[in-house]
């Protein structure tokens, strides 16, 4: 009975029954590893990815035509994507949807609906996206590593905003999310098993370090194309980071906007407390089955301290040092 009930709540993310023949054929030859949830994840072009999203990623690579005005938010999963989606939406649409408007879209829609993932909502499950309903600039998101981005994204003037978070909190947030997605609760991986997989690079869109470092390098080589942000930086100095973001997008806040409190209001509207408390984010669900509330857990820096053993901490510190030493990239709060 319990299994039956759990099956009913199975999320689309985990389903593998709608895969195309082309995708099934590819899966049969790709390297595979143990997944945190479901059976396997597969290594495609250096990136670990579950089957359903692999299909979406390949369709996106083959079909997506970027436009110069596009803005694509790229993140490692669980680094604050939902937060930055909301900030970006509010920022970019502040003329069309003034932030003080009583029925602002962010009050009634989850940020994942307003800024959809390319490989998930738009190209997942064989969908053909209808971009005619989008306003310009199009706001899109992805977890795809740099090396796997569609060619048109690199050939166009599309801007990329990259967000990552310290790997310890990222791991803990992913672990909680995976536990939420799990359909058979008896099929539980311990935090230690998942941690070992994370350290080996086997996490969704992993290896984590490759994902972060590739975009970090691009942001240095091509600062007009790739803007690199960290969750902790936004937490610490939200106003400064939001203004930097507006400047990168060539739409800086005017003095009048600042004086009228637009920057503060965007930050308030997109704050963890505000978004979490909204009806849509308390009781709503995404079309893919996830409850909106799972994207708002604690929203803090340093929650890893409540879970990490000394051994886990030592192991990840060692990896962080090995992978990031000499790159100029430093994580805070680790
Ligand atoms: P995704 O990659 O699957 O879209 P993502 O939004 O990146 O997920 O991750 C959710 C994390 O962002 C959660 O972190 P936690 O598990 O450590 O709590 C979530 O709480 C946090 N988060 C969501 N919205 C906000 C916000 N407005 N401010 C700060 N953190 C937030």
From TrEMBL:
The keyword Transferase applies. GO terms for molecular function: sulfotransferase activity. Keywords: Transferase. One of its GO terms (biological process) is sulfation. It is an enzyme of class 2 (transferase). It comes from the Eukaryota. One of its GO terms (cellular component) is cytoplasm. InterPro entries: P-loop_NTPase, Sulfotransferase_dom. Residues 68-328 form the Sulfotransferase domain. Its EC number is 2.8.2.-. Belongs to the sulfotransferase 1 family. This is Sulfotransferase. It comes from Solanum lycopersicum (Tomato).
